[in-house]
Amino acid sequence: MKRTTLSAILFLSAPIFAEAQPVLETAMNEAQGMIVAAKASRRKTARPAKEPEDITIPRFQQKTFPAPAGGACGLKSFTLLDYENRSKDGEHEYARISIMGAVIETTSPDCIRDYGVVQFIRGCVYNSRHSVKTGALLEQDFSVNRRLRGAENVVFNHPTYEVDQMETDPLYASFPQEAGRLDLAYVPHTPLKLRPETPSMLSDFKAFNESNRRTFLKDHPGPTSVIFVSDMPLGGITYFNAQSQEVSATNSSLDFKTCVYRIQDVPVSGDPAGEDTPPENGGPLQCFSWSSRYTYDAEIQDFATDKFKGIDPFCSQAPARKR
């Protein structure tokens, strides 16, 4: 597998649709600023000659649906694959990134635009600073912002589950600049395997992670019965300052529920019915849960994925969101 450097991971952690949407230029500039900071940290770091580490751990969830009566077109399957990518790019420089792909498959191309994904999020992302020599926690703050439901510079904290979408439309991959709500869903260049075996999951990972292996639905030249959306939330990233012997870390404590709905049940603004609502009343057809939990632990000098049962308690100290 191609090695992913810390700088590359920082770049990819920007919102996944930035490659196509000028409205996200601010987010991309912020990601570039993180890259510059990481490179500046490396220049101050005397590192031993070690091979960087790059490990990807896949997880698989899938729901298949009965064939519709009378040969009608309908939902065939909904599959969620999420991956934990662990990377080490020098002494005290680590990255833990989660990557998700949610795949909709219909019985024929005729109804591929009848279904879409809504994702819900809870938890927070925050920064911390630690002494390498003593392991002491020197500082914690909520200086990480995001775009949420059309609002800029929102503190990255979600005390309870809410729709995870940059635009006002709750449908994942929907942007106001596009005529169709699903225009920016992806079509894979080669068929996805959608199987729980590790080689199959790692093969599908390439489509979720590499832009040259997929096409936007609006640009796809022919019919398709498979589309997907992908997500790469901010994870755990460290920066080592050799002069001060301090590690600065971005910590992620996020839970997600990724749900497939009938498009007709997803409003263009506001929220759709939640998981407690039956599908026949507008609720989701299926929801899958996954997490991006990476808290820097100074004792082990690495990120811990199971440090807390549930969301990191520090998230409760985030400032109230401005209305």
Can you tell me about this structure?
- With 323 residues, the chain is mainly β.
- It has one domain (6-317).
- The protein is built from three helices and 15 strands.
- It has helices at 6-12, 25-43, 198-209; strands at 53-64, 75-88, 94-106, 115-131, 137-141, 145-148, 151-155, 157-163, 186-188, 214-216, 226-231, 236-241, 246-262, 286-297, 302-304.
- Strands 1, 2, 3, 4, 5, 8, 11, 12, 13, 14 and 15 form an eleven-stranded antiparallel sheet that branches. The chain has a two-stranded antiparallel ribbon with strand order 6-7. The chain has a two-stranded antiparallel ribbon with strand order 9-10.
- Strand 12 and strand 13 (246-262) form a beta hairpin.
- 38% of the residues are buried.
- Mean pLDDT is 85; it is low at 1-51.
Quaternary organisation: single chain
Instruction: Give the % helix.
Output: 10-25%
Number of self-contained structural domains: 1
C-alpha termini separation: 45 Å
Number of helices: 3
- Spell the H/E element sequence: HHEEEEEEEEEHEEEEEE
Give the structural class: mainly beta
Low-confidence stretches: 1-51
**Rg on CA atoms, Å:** 20 Å
Name the overall outline: globular
Main sheet?
11 strands, antiparallel
- Quick check: average pLDDT? 85
Beta content:
35-45%
Q: Let me know the number of strands.
A: 15
Short overview:
With 323 residues, the protein is mainly β.
Topology overview:
Blueprint: H1 6-12, H2 25-43, E1 53-64, E2 75-88, E3 94-106, E4 115-131, E5 137-141, E6 145-148, E7 151-155, E8 157-163, E9 186-188, H3 198-209, E10 214-216, E11 226-231, E12 236-241, E13 246-262, E14 286-297, E15 302-304
Antiparallel strand pairs: 1-2, 2-3, 3-11, 3-12, 4-5, 4-8, 4-13, 6-7, 9-10, 12-13, 13-14, 14-15
